[in-house]
């Protein structure tokens, strides 16, 4: 009989709630946004119901990081700080990334709680979040402040930043399912084997802290 | 079909507003909903004063900002060159109202309130209802070339009494298929002297939107194919890893 795999806590309740709130809003925004981009879907935008949904989801998207900030300020600060700081292992990891893309995690440089690819992903999402939010708020509430030319550039900014975010999300989904990482964000726990293969440096840190408190 | 146009001769208009009523009947509009609006002008100082009410409706621009910006195709160009509108496709986003250089479309509820170019009539060679109903012959419908010549001849005659008389069909919007004969400068009628279509609209509609669609679709396909390979590789390495760990313990 196989023993139950040993689990390590990876994502807190706050992180999971923030993540899935953001996800729900983002999916709704992407779908309703595509109605205005892909002509084949435009019949679904007729009547304006999708705009109502889009705006409701936009509020939810803006609230997700606010919730994270209020519930666990230190955690959000660490996430942002981690996303913009890369050590020597991270740089080596990024150089070796092509093999990781094709499903080979073994032999990759040892990584902390967030691997270098995730760091880049987060950093880009943070920047694009502001671009999509600012342009979106102007298109919704700030029309009077824009001329005809600037209004058009807001449409450009909104679509470009959102397209990049969707591309990043496709990449995110890709890695989640290649490496079976979904459970980490649903239950908050990962197996020890997963942690050892993907985040060895972080696992060592967790173990050291465990010994200290024991 | 040759490009059709509407000639609006402000030297003939008697300001009766029956074009508006005819339009409302034709399009089944509520009294407060209008496709044909009016611009009110007051001129001079007492006791030498004058006032004008000028028909102010869709200009049927050749390079129409509203057609360019409409994300659902509810506003579109017909074979006649007139601009048409299908309310069933309208999402009420209001982009046309933002981008029209003449400030004509309005949004009410979840749809635009704007001229349809009387599609069922004009596509069959008949004048739009506003023209049909004009009792002063200030509105004429016909081939654009002919109407333009007529407008120029009329302006030449008007110049004797009205030195600022002019034909108005501005280049900035690729010229308009609503051709005005004005007795005075465009500003007097509430018209912009040099209306232009925002350059950003072309970038958005013709570059950003199609490119984004293609890039996202391509990423989904390439990602899907690559996923099959990557997942297989990782499952193999996970099996080896489990065996290795067992060996260690």
Question: Could you outline the blueprint of secondary structure elements for this entry?
Answer:
The complex is a heterodimer of chains A (214) and B (249).
Chain A: E1 7-9, H1 13-34, H2 49-71, H3 73-83, H4 88-95, H5 97-101, H6 116-141, H7 148-178, H8 182-187, E2 189-191, H9 192-198, H10 200-213
Helix pairs in contact in A: 1-2, 2-3, 3-6, 6-7, 9-10
Chain B: E1 4-9, H1 18-26, E2 37-45, E3 48-56, H2 65-69, E4 75-77, E5 83-85, H3 95-99, E6 106-108, E7 111-113, H4 119-122, H5 129-132, E8 139-143, H6 144-158, E9 166-168, E10 178-182, H7 199-248
Parallel strand pairs in B: 1-10
Antiparallel strand pairs in B: 1-8, 2-3, 4-5, 6-7, 9-10
Brief overview:
The complex is a heterodimer of chains A (214) and B (249). By secondary structure, chain A is an all-alpha fold.
Order of helices and strands of chain B: EHEEHEEHEEHHEHEEH
| Class computed from helices, strands and strand pairing of chain B | alpha+beta
- Give me the oligomer status: heterodimer
Radius of gyration of chain B: 27 Å
Fraction of residues of chain B in helices?
25-40%
Specify which chain pair forms the largest interface. Answer: A-B, 45 and 50 residues
Rg over CA atoms of chain A: 20 Å
């Amino acid at each position: 009989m196989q023993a139950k795999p040993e689990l390590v806590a990876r994502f807190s309740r706050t992180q999971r709630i923030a993540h899935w709130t953001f996800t729900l809003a983002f999916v709704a925004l992407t779908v309703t946004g595509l109605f205005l981009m892909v002509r084949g879907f435009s019949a679904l935008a007729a009547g304006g119901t999708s705009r109502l949904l889009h705006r409701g989801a936009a509020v939810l998207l803006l609230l997700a990081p606010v919730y994270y900030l209020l519930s666990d300020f230190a955690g959000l600060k660490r996430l942002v700080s981690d996303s913009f700081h890369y050590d020597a292992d991270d740089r080596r990891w990024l150089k070796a990334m092509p093999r990781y893309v094709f499903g080979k995690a073994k032999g990759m440089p040892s990584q902390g709680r967030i691997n270098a690819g995730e760091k880049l992903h987060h950093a880009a999402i943070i920047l694009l979040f502001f671009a999509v939010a600012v342009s979106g708020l102007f298109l919704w509430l700030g029309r009077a402040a824009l001329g005809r030319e600037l209004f058009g550039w807001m449409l450009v900014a909104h679509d470009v930043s959102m397209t990049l975010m969707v591309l990043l999300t496709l990449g995110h989904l890709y890695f989640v399912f290649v490496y079976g990482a979904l459970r980490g964000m649903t239950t908050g726990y990962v197996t020890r084997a997963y942690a050892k293969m993907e985040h060895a440096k972080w696992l060592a840190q967790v173990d050291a802290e465990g010994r200290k408190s024991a | 079909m040759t490009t059709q146009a509407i000639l609006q001769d402000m030297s003939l208009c008697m300001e009766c507003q029956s074009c508006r009523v005819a339009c409302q009947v034709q399009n089944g509009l509520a009294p407060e909903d209008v496709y044909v609006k009016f611009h009110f002008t007051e001129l001079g100082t007492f006791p030498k004063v004058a006032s004008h009410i000028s028909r102010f409706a869709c200009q049927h621009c050749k390079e129409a900002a509203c057609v360019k910006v409409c994300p659902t195709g509810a506003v579109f160009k017909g074979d006649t060159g007139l601009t048409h509108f299908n309310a069933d496709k309208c999402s009420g986003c209001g982009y046309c109202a933002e981008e029209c250089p003449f400030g004509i479309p309005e949004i009410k509820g979840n749809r635009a309130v704007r001229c349809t170019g009387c599609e069922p009539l004009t596509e069959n060679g008949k004048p739009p209802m506003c023209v049909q109903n004009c009792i002063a012959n200030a509105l004429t419908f016909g081939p654009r070339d002919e109407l333009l010549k007529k407008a120029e001849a009329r302006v030449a005659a008007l110049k004797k009494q009205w030195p600022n008389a002019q034909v108005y069909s501005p280049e900035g919007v690729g010229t308009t298929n609503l051709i005005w004969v004005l007795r005075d400068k465009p500003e007097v009628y509430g018209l912009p002297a040099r209306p232009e279509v925002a350059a950003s609209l072309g970038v958005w509609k013709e570059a950003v939107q199609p490119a984004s669609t293609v890039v996202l679709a391509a990423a989904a396909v390439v990602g899907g194919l690559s996923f099959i390979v990557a997942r297989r590789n990782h499952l193999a390495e996970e099996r080896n890893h489990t065996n290795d760990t067992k060996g260690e313990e």
